[in-house]
Amino acid sequence: MPEKRLILDVKDLGIDFGGLTAVNDFSMQVYDNEIVGLIGPNGAGKTTVFNMLTKVYQPTRGIILFDGEDTAKKNVVDMNKAGIARTFQNIRLFSQLSVLDNVRTGYHNRSAYSSLTAVLRLPAYYAKEREIDENARELLKIFGLESEAENLASNLPYGAQRRLEIARALATGPKLLLLDEPAAGMNPQETEELMDMIRLVREHFKIAILLIEHDMKLVMGICERITVLNYGMMLAEGTPAEIQADPAVIKAYLGE
Amino acid sequence: MDFLSYLINGLGLGSVYAIIALGYTMVYGIAKMLNFAHGDVIMIGAYVAFFALNSFGLPLPVAIILSIAVCTVLGVTVERLAYKPLRQASSLSVLITAIGVSYFLQNAAQLLWSSSTKVFPTIIPNGGISLGGLSISYLTLITIAVCIFVMICLTLFINRTRTGRAMRACSEDKGASTLMGINVNRIISITFAIGSGLAAIAAVLLCATYPSVYPTLGAMPGIKAFTAAVFGGIGSIPGAFLGGLLLGVIEIFAKAYISTQLSDAIVFAVLIIVLLIKPAGLLGRRIREKV
């Protein structure tokens, strides 16, 4: 098997909130085009890790190398430009924007034309806007949302809102997509469809995916590697089979 | 006939309120703050236009552009120095800071240009057109036309450009916007720039109607336009437009049919009644708090 490119390399990451250490000594690697799961009991610090990776929280300790580059000085917008995009545990779409506009928002940084161009309605403005429009509709088609393009995001059914969040994140052109509990609130059939979709996204966009999920069927079904977090510390790391057999993991989840 | 001519005068006055109200509502919609110094930006705009026309003898279009430029820079600077450091502070701190900025600008104007009233030159010729028995002054016509033009431009900008889209996104969820790669600080600066530029346009229209320039000039139109913004639903751009026009019409009708002295009281009484019936304003959205 050829050596895969390392996309995300996290070393000894930690964060304190006041006197409370939320995450400590956390290390993990994500390789190109890989699907990795981050699991752990409630309150283990999984979303905190996502917030550090996207720089919503500035880590107290440790190093995040993204695509070989140190990200210590980067802020949220820089991280997005570098190629990390995410979805949220509780859906955070722009509910009063149309479905299409939600996705177009994702193209913000990939579609620079000056405001002067827009005010003067120069051809460059039309060309760029048409390009954004075509790309955005293309994305909606992949997610089966093209017929909803003009509707308000808040009027979509729940499952469609989750798909739209993924589409919006992909519009920013990420190399690594972070999914925070994508299957939350879904029924078994919807979860099944979601698994197909995540695989499709990986194939189609050639990106790596790191996901937080409580649905073990989904995690074990699509992740190639899994990292387990407990009380802000790494508990285990390995393939789904290894994790399922790990006594420490079983203990953390089920108690003794 | 009287009724129609009052209506048109009301729309003229309301157009000025609407342009000012747009500044309040845009800043509120995106920065979630009430910029009570907005009225004083109008005052600065009026002084700049006055000096450009009177002291330097510049032609009107140049004076207007200069006034817009100065107000835009002023608005962005005030945001950067006074409001940006308070991005994480409580909304009460920001509100009090805005009132402080307002007093600062008024007193700075008094110090620089004295408190005596300056007479703004006539920029729009008297007279007007008559339709049947109805006569409409050029000033009213121009004011309404400018307001409609501003409204169309702004609507196109907000709905059709990427910056406008980013503004709408920021007004809903700043955190998610940043994570989509939108520089929220930059969007807030642009919002202040547009609002303050509009304040300069309003200043010139206001001085064409009431040709006196003095340090507290912006206070009353500012508070009326704020009322208009709340009336229409603060945060909503069509709301500010509608609220401004309605407020102008109500004010002129109150003056004409009820009492000149009581007109302001009537305007504010209408506001109170509307807010009792529709707490979010005419076109405002009710924000549902999650429990």
User: Strand pairing plus helix content of chain A: what structural class?
Assistant: alpha/beta
How many strands in all of chain B? 4
Give the % helix of chain B: over 70%
CATH architecture label of the largest domain in chain A: 3-Layer(aba) Sandwich
Mean pLDDT of chain A: 90
Query: For the terminal residues of chain B, how far apart are their CA atoms?
Result: 54 Å
CATH architecture of chain B: Orthogonal Bundle
Mean pLDDT of chain B: 92
Strand content of chain B: under 5%
Number of helices of chain B: 11
What is the number of domains of chain A? 2
Integer-rounded radius of gyration of chain A:
19 Å
Class by SSE composition of chain B? mainly alpha
| Strand element count of chain A | 10
Count of the domains of chain B: 1
Word description of this protein:
- The complex is a heterodimer of chains A (256) and B (291).
- With 256 residues, chain A is α/β, with parallel strands linked by helices.
- Chain A has 2 domains: 1-83 and 174-256, Rossmann fold, CATH 3.40.50; 93-173, no CATH class.
- Chain A contains 10 helices and 10 strands.
- Chain A has helices spanning 46-53, 76-82, 99-106, 115-119, 123-142, 158-171, 188-205, 216-222, 240-245, 247-254, and strands at residues 6-17, 20-31, 35-39, 61-66, 69-70, 84-86, 176-180, 208-212, 225-230, 233-238.
- In chain A, the strands form 2 sheets. In chain A, strands 6-7-8-3-9-10 form a 6-stranded mixed beta sheet, sandwiched between helices. In chain A, strands 2-1-4-5 form a 4-stranded antiparallel beta sheet, with helices on one face.
- The longest helix of chain A has 20 residues, at 123-142.
- The mean pLDDT of chain A is 90.
- A two-stranded antiparallel ribbon of chain B has the order 1-4.
- In chain B, strand 2 and strand 3 form a beta hairpin.
- In chain B, helix 1 packs parallel to helix 5 (138-160), helix 2 packs across helix 9 (219-232) and helix 9 crosses helix 10.
- Chain B is globular.
- The chains are: A alpha/beta (256), B mainly alpha (291).
